[in-house]
UniProtKB/TrEMBL annotation:
Belongs to the MAP65/ASE1 family. Residues 63-90 form a coiled coil. The lineage of its organism: Eukaryota, Viridiplantae, Streptophyta, Embryophyta, Tracheophyta. This is Uncharacterized protein. Keywords: Coiled coil, Microtubule. InterPro entries: MAP65_Ase1_PRC1. GO terms for cellular component: cytoplasm; microtubule; spindle.
């Protein structure tokens, strides 16, 4: 109704426009209510995302209650709702990861979550929607990374212990009955990813169990290796004794014994080292054999020479007595042997000199 076309008295004119004014007032109040609802929801979600309490009063600019402005607020509300939904999904993802890591490592997920924020615990549904702030997400992410690192460290340790256990089993020829209690742990130690790990597979108790077994077998291995070392050392001593050689590698073998007692020597390395020593000792004993044969022949000749001297001093050597003929025959043989001593000594010295030149060391016979 155009004011300039209105006719009648002022009262009549007022009565005619009152319904229109009332309708506009109702529309304004309805629009204002929409603004308040939208802005209230915007503030609530924005506060949750920011991690701050909702204590700010809603102020609506009543100078602009246009549909365009309302649509702008509604678009902002939809954006915040999507962000809230994404953050809630992220919170749930973190919670699932924390539960999985805790389950594998035998930890209490509720305790872990409560350390981040008590409202993250299941059952606190009235507060869950508020746990979407950057602070909460950062704390959850940090916790997940810490648990992941702890899981990786335990996995690395389990892998290392698993390899050590397998090696010790093979060295000690451990039977299947003794291996069986560690079968499942052994499987876990060979697993490369978390998907194959069962509940409690990386608990501290599990790792301590296998660690204790490795330590026990290590001590047993040290005892076995000491026994093996003594056998090999005795073999070297026997070769040296038989060939009248100095005991070589004594310093090295003393060091090996120290390493064995510390548990720091590898079984294969020990065998290889001792077998190398035995090979070298045998090789030297073989190189000395010709000289040793000459030495033994010379010593036997010297024994015959001493016997001949004693026999020559015996005034009864020509008497007719039982056995005299045998002694006479031996004396004849002894004289032949004694006459060869100078040549034998000369040959022995020549052989020894050649040996020393080839070996670049002095030939010793029982340290002489």
């Amino acid at each position: 109704m155009q004011p300039e076309k209105m006719t009648g008295t002022l009262k009549e004119q007022l009565n005619s426009i009152t319904p229109a004014l009332q309708e506009m007032q109702m529309r304004k109040e309805a629009r204002l209510k929409q603004f308040i609802e939208v802005q209230t929801e915007i503030q609530r979600i924005a506060s949750e995302i920011a991690g701050r309490p909702e204590n700010e009063a809603i102020t609506v600019n009543q100078e602009d209650l246009s549909l365009k402005k309302l649509e702008e607020h509604q678009s902002e509300l939809q954006r915040l709702k999507r962000e809230k939904s994404d953050r809630l999904c992220k919170v749930e993802e973190y919670k699932v990861l924390i539960h999985n890591y805790a389950k594998i490592m035998g930890m209490d997920p509720s305790k872990i979550l409560s350390n981040v924020h008590t409202s993250l615990l299941d059952g606190a549904n009235d507060q869950q929607t508020k746990n979407i702030s950057d602070d909460i997400l950062n704390k959850l992410n940090t916790m997940v990374q810490q648990l992941k690192e702890e899981k990786n460290q335990r996995m690395d340790k389990l892998h290392s212990l698993g390899k050590a256990l397998t090696k010790l089993w093979n060295i000690l020829d451990t039977n299947m009955e003794e291996r069986r209690p560690y079968g499942e742990i052994k499987i876990y130690s060979m697993t490369s990813g978390s998907s194959m790990l069962g509940p409690g597979s990386l608990t501290l108790e599990t790792i301590q169990k296998i660690e204790s077994e490795v330590q026990r077998l290590d001590h047993l291995k040290a005892s076995k290796m000491k026994e093996l070392f003594m056998i090999k050392q005795t073999e070297i001593k026997e070769i040296c004794k038989k060939s009248h050689m100095d005991m070589p590698y004594q310093t090295e073998m003393n060091k090996i014994m120290d390493v064995i007692m510390s548990g720091d020597v590898d079984h294969d390395d020990l065998l290889k080292t001792m077998d190398e020593y035995i090979y070298k000792v045998k090789e030297e004993a073989t190189s000395r054999k010709e000289i040793m044969d000459k030495v033994e022949k010379w010593m036997a000749s010297c024994d015959e020479e001493r016997w001949l001297e004693e026999y020559s001093r015996d005034e009864r050597r020509y008497s007719i007595s039982r056995g005299a003929h045998k002694h006479l025959k031996r004396a004849e043989r002894a004289r032949i042997i004694v006459n060869k001593i100078p040549g034998l000594v000369e040959l022995l010295m020549a052989k020894t000199e050649i040996w020393e030149q080839e070996r670049e060391k002095v030939f010793y016979y029982d340290e002489v």
